[in-house]
Recover the amino acids of this structure.
């Protein structure tokens, strides 16, 4: 028995050897060994270290060879399946700004590295280490606001949600170009959404409301989303968002489960418009509140419809569903009848709220109609489903559902021509029409 086994083994090796030599015989130079130091470290620096480093939000660091080596198999699998780096839309790599996806070639390189035993390579080949700054990417913000006091996150097996209301009240109408979020504790903050809070919102005494609810259902408007690896959007020169006088900001933070106590004090930085503001960023909003997803239903779709009433220049997209959210499509029908799926999120994941910012803005004509199509999985197959036996309705808890899609755009014809200094208007609009 043993002998036979040995024989087959040598036979198999012999065959592999023959195959291998014949391949390398043809193409010896190109097929040089893939090593960590030369080929893999640069990919990890570019696409993984953001989260997979000491102090990052991922469970392990992939910076050093010794740290990455034990994960080789899992790395191959997760990259082949495109589960890592996390990104949930499809379309050509590069269509989206800050698109973290690997190219097919990078995935193949990682697989070859793993298949050849994940060798280290020559230390001299290592690229210079990437320095991860905690500083603000767009420089010091014009206005920095932070949660009143450090928040103690209690140990919990479950996700926790806290909505913090900031003290700052906008003293006058303010034009902003960007909202950037700096979580105080990267290991704890899973995602964080900044909301505009109208003056009639009842501000809690302690500055926060703990519990699982969607602030949008209480009249706030989400203006920025942060998830690991997602940078704040900086609007192009001349485009801004107006925050009306008397408003405040709030941030809802989703804390990941952990066994130990943690502390977080998240900050947000605002960047004001300065110079001439020509366009106010607009939103085309698809929403359904008449949600009733039958129990056990795997593929339940809801559609909302809207039409662009102006020639539009689209900058970015956002979709929002809760735990049963499965996939999402934004389908455009142009005035000439052509149909195009402009955003496709085949594997929606509530844990990765992100904004899909186009690398190149997209122009669409007035009259283009949009179907916002959200699909849900209320069956037991959905591993996030808290209760597949329940009919699910619209509601503010993550165990209820929502169906929202937003397209952020500018009107191609708008020219406000407002002189703005540090966010505040210094001249009245000149009729608001085209010059
Ligand atoms: C935006 C943050 C982020 C980026 C970028 C990222 N990861 Fe991850 N990764 C995570 C988080 C968070 C987890 C743990 C939770 C999960 O699996 O979703 C994880 C889990 C993993 C796992 C599974 C670990 C296990 O327990 O089985 C592997 C393997 C992995 N990542 C590899 C990579 C590789 C390789 C890259 C780059 C090509 C990468 N990741 C990029 C955040 C990230």
């Amino acid at each position: 028995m043993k002998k036979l086994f040995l024989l087959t083994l040598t036979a198999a090796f012999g065959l592999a050897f023959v195959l291998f030599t014949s391949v390398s015989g043809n193409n010896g130079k190109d097929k040089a060994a893939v090593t960590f130091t030369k080929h893999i470290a640069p990919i990890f620096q570019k696409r993984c270290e953001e989260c997979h480093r000491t102090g990052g939000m991922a469970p392990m660091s992939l910076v050093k060879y010794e740290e990455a080596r034990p994960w080789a198999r899992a790395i191959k699998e997760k990259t082949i399946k495109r589960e890592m780096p996390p990104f949930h839309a499809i379309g050509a790599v590069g269509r989206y700004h800050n698109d973290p996806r690997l190219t097919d070639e990078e995935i193949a390189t990682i697989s070859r590295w793993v298949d050849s035993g994940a060798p280290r390579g020559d230390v001299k080949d290592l690229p210079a280490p990437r320095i991860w700054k905690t500083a603000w990417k767009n420089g010091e913000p014009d206005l920095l606001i932070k949660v009143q006091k450090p928040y103690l996150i209690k140990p919990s097996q479950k996700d926790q949600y806290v909505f913090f209301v900031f003290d700052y009240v906008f003293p006058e109408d303010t034009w902003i170009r960007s909202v950037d979020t700096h979580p105080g504790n990267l290991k704890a903050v899973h995602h964080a959404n900044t909301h505009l809070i109208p003056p009639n919102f009842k501000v809690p005494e302690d500055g926060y409301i703990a519990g699982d609810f969607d602030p949008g259902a209480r009249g706030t408007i989400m203006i920025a989303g942060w998830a690991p690896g997602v940078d704040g959007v900086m609007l192009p020169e001349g485009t801004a968002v107006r925050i009306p006088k008397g408003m405040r900001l709030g941030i809802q933070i989703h804390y990941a489960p952990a066994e130990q106590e943690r502390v977080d004090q998240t900050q947000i930085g605002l960047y004001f418009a300065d110079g001439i503001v020509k366009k106010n960023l607009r939103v085309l909003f698809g929403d359904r509140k008449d949600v009733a997803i039958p129990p056990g239903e795997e593929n339940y779709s809801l559609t909302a419809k809207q039409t662009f009433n102006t020639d539009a220049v689209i900058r970015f997209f956002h979709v929002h569903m809760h735990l049963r959210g499965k996939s999402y499509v934004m389908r455009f029908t142009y005035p000439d009848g052509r149909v195009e799926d402009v955003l496709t999120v085949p594997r929606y994941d509530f844990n990765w709220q992100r904004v899909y910012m186009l690398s190149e803005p997209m122009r669409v004509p007035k009259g283009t109609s949009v179907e916002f199509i959200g699909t849900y999985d209320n069956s037991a197959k959905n591993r996030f489903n808290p209760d597949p036996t329940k009919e699910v309705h619209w509601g503010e808890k993550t165990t209820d559902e929502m169906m929202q899609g937003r397209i952020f755009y500018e009107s191609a014809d708008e020219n406000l021509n407002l002189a703005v200094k540090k966010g505040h208007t210094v001249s009245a609009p000149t009729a608001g029409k085209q010059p």
